[in-house]
Amino acid sequence: MFRPRTARPRRYSLPKARLLAIPAAIALVLPGAAFAQNAQDSEVIRKELLALRQQQAQITELQQQNAAAIAALEARLGVAPPPAQSTTATPPTAATVATPAISDRLKVSGDLRFRGQHDRSDSDARDRSSSQVRGRLGATYAVNDLVTVGARIVTGDSDDPNSTDVQLSNWNDDLTVSLDLAYTQLNFGDLKLYGGKFPNPFARTDLVWDGDVNPQGLAATYKHALPGGGAFRANSVFYLVDEKAAGSDSTMGGVQLGYDSPANGDFRFDISGAYYRYSLGSIAGADSGDWRTNRLKPDGTFLSDFELGNLLVGASWQGASEKWPVRLVGDYVKNFGAIDDQDTGFGVDLSLGRASRPGDWRFTYGYSQTDVDAVLSAFSHDNIGIATNYKLHSLTVDYTPMPKTLISAIWYHYKPNDPAFAGSNAPDDWLDRFRVFFLVNF
Description:
Elements: H1 16-38, H2 42-77, H3 94-98, H4 102-105, E1 106-121, E2 128-142, E3 147-155, E4 166-167, E5 177-188, E6 191-197, E7 216-225, E8 231-242, E9 250-260, E10 267-280, H5 288-291, E11 307-317, E12 326-335, E13 344-353, E14 361-370, E15 390-399, E16 405-416, E17 431-441
Antiparallel strand pairs: 1-2, 1-17, 2-3, 2-4, 3-5, 5-6, 6-7, 7-8, 8-9, 9-10, 10-11, 11-12, 12-13, 13-14, 14-15, 15-16, 16-17
């Protein structure tokens, strides 16, 4: 196919000096053209820059006002301001990036309580006034993401699991201090495993478990958050009550299931059901404070077995003011191992208010009643002089005067439940115990 030939373009050559001058000319012409093209926007940019500087000045002024307000509040509350931060940034090393600081892994807490007490009786004994002090200092240390260890030292008689209070008397003798917690905790998300002497994991009231009793042995706790804010709970404990090299041991196996409801308006509820089975093969390590008012055989062993079924139900109502929540708790226990019908106990507590912030008030009324073998008295509360077989009214007033402090006044009004098991107490004599204490937490 014939294709017409096109004329080849003629090549021109410029002197080398002219070639070198072209880029310089472009460099001179283009900035000038760009400046001419953008000159109309310079006024807009200047106004935006001015507006940003004004906003920055306003933010700085607000920060200064906030800092002054925080300092004033800290002065009123007696809170020390945080240490000044260095303005020189130090680049983190590999060690600080990989491992949290010791201060982040170590948590120390404790409390100190001073209490005055007055006991009044119509005919059982003379009236008595006394005072007690309690001190507790504990710490946990996160060895790594899996392992945490914990321990706590407390005042009080090491042979009394129900109390860490020390009676102020005995010609100014020094206070007794002991170790009431020493444990290892393994963390698997919702599941936690414990070994040693650890905090009591069960939801409870003083009816079955005194607040100072901490089991020893093995435990597992599981808590899983549910959609909407509720939670499912499961706790189990194998409790080494008394182990002997020769002869039978005393142990307890316990399990508890619980459910916390999500908020339904201002209302929430929770429920916990537990079963505790004691095998009391040895009481060689027990003393009078451990069996207290439970019935005993002539050989000194317990007359009843202890297989406790325990139901705990609570309901909370926030109401119109967050300062005055209402809380109702009911506790019921039955000993399926009792030899007769002396096997039941129950309690009801109603509280109004809170005690978490300065100026808060909380009022609580409680009533509880037990049969003589309804609970194992070794681990039930010791707030009054009768461990089981009692009828008890209590009234508590709590006031928070300042952060991390609490003032409480408590009145216990009680008597034996069944006159047949009143022991040394007058069957129809109502006794009164008044307590006032000041507590400092840290």
